[in-house]
Automatic annotation (TrEMBL), chains A, B:
Similarity field: Belongs to the purine/pyrimidine phosphoribosyltransferase family. PurR subfamily.
Name of this protein: Pur operon repressor
Highest taxon above the source species: Bacteria
Every Bacterial purine repressor N-terminal domain range: 8-76
GO molecular function: DNA binding
InterPro entries for the chain: PRTase-like, PRTase_dom, Pur/Pyrimidine_PRTase, PuR_N, PurR_Bsub, WH-like_DNA-bd_sf, WH_DNA-bd_sf
Classification via PANTHER family: HYPOXANTHINE/GUANINE PHOSPHORIBOSYLTRANSFERASE, PUR OPERON REPRESSOR
Coiled-coil features, chain-numbered ranges: none
The entry's keywords: DNA-binding, Transcription, Transcription regulation
Species whose genome carries this gene: Natranaerobius trueperi
């Protein structure tokens, strides 16, 4: 730690770098004061300026938390325009005919493992669900893990990953049975007893939802941890809303139909406004 | 895009924000010139300043790429001190007695799903393996996915995830058998044929290595894609080097012994110097 007075340029660099590299994490004003050798009032002015620039860029905003554990944090609450760009990037990539697989499935493995795209999507989820004040993100192996991970990162909270088979290396677990819509059979999901603390506020994130059997399973699992689901987000869903086992979830788009013969992907993306709360 | 001339403060904010939010991605000077309404020489001076600050902070550096597709990118090539901090954080967390599970296993599920810690570890991997110029990161489900994901993100390259059972939603796959040291039985790993392009330079990342059977399997799988492994990194390994099935890998530490009765975890972390190349 240095207390040498730093130039404005260096202060702006230092604060921007710390805030952008640690989304969702509260950084105390004292930390900046100590590291930059500037008065608290100067740091506050700099932060107000960074906040303005950030909002102009449409990439997010800064939140100020008062009190003893107070400070400032970066939250990727994006502008409607930024969200619209991500939605159309996602749509373009998903509607590529080459994605159609035998049986009318859509190849999505590259999308759910693309860190770049998932950061944009996870940022949108974080900006939306921050109002629900989640303490932890919960997902299930395998394909939703990265998306759940970046969402948790942007919210500055941990992640828990349920598994279909418990492993000896996870210690005691709580298991439940559920019916997965994609395989249409009874499966087991389990989570280490120490993965979620009692009375947690849990955000469910997954890559894909058909009927919602998996999300319903995750919700039941959450109850076993004496905790509560406060939000549910999936990248994509398939089929009609009336057939769903759960309600109140947020998805980026709905796949209505994939026509293998005519190479047609009938996809409807949600509107950017859907992802913005006041 | 605006071409209104922006203040120095705003330029430093804008460039720092873009670079930090897109590690491993090359951003052209033209992009900054167009968005900030400043001369190329001014942008170059600003970037030199940001580079100095970044190196002072010990968090990374900026790389300049010349030529038509040239530009600048942020690589988290960390200082020895920054790396040492991560190593000791990891050591402190791992040697908590409460992690000892029946059978002499170590509970690590929280660590391999902690976005904050994994960003630090993934940043170190990225700073180390960038010299090997990988095109893609390859891992296997489940526990290594987040670490592999952040490493890929910092390198600005995609990720491929091998699975133990192929799914109908992945289309055609290539499968191989391998012997996993942790379960000591023959298993299958598969990867969609479209996941890795021919002649790729592949970086293998996993959370844990016992004998190296899984990494050896991933190496064999890579060969089936007519590609080449250029680096191997694991968070932790167990046991003696002479018993390993693979060589030339980088790990953060070695678990020598876990004593269930005496609640003792015998862990040796690697030295920070090990993670720095010239």
């Amino acid at each position: 730690m240095t207390s040498i007075k730093q130039s404005k340029t260096k202060r702006i660099f230092f604060m921007t770098q710390k805030l952008m590299s640690n989304p969702g994490k509260t950084i105390s004003l004292k930390y900046f004061v100590d590291n930059l050798g500037a008065a608290k009032s100067t740091i506050s002015e700099d932060l107000a300026q960074i906040k303005n620039y950030l909002e102009e860029s449409g990439e997010g905003t800064l939140y100020t938390l008062a009190g003893k554990h107070g400070g400032i944090k970066f939250i990727p609450r994006q502008s409607s325009e930024t969200i619209a760009n991500t939605l159309s990037e996602l749509e373009n990539r998903l509607t590529d005919q080459k994605r159609i697989l035998p049986g009318g499935y859509l190849y999505m493995s590259d999308i759910v493992s693309d860190p770049d795209l998932l950061k944009k999507v996870g940022g949108i989820f974080a900006g939306y669900f921050i109002n629900d004040q989640p303490d932890i993100v919960l997902t299930i192996e395998t394909k939703g893990i990265l998306l759940a991970g970046v969402t948790a990162d942007y919210l500055g909270i941990p992640l828990a990953i349920a598994r279909n088979n418990s492993r000896v290396t996870e210690g005691a677990v709580i298991s439940i049975n559920y019916i997965s819509g994609s395989s249409n059979k009874i499966q087991t999901m389990s989570l280490p007893t120490r993965a979620i603390e009692k009375n947690s506020r849990v955000l469910l994130i997954d890559d894909f939802m058909k009927q919602g059997g998996t999300l319903k399973g995750l919700k039941n699992l959450t109850k076993e941890f004496e905790s509560k689901v406060v939000g549910k987000g999936v990248l994509l869903e398939r089929g009609q809303a009336q057939d769903k086992l759960i309600t109140d979830y947020l998805s980026f788009g709905i796949i209505n139909k994939i026509d293998e013969e005519y190479k047609d992907i009938d996809l409807r993306m949600n509107l950017p406004e859907k992802f913005i709360r006041n």
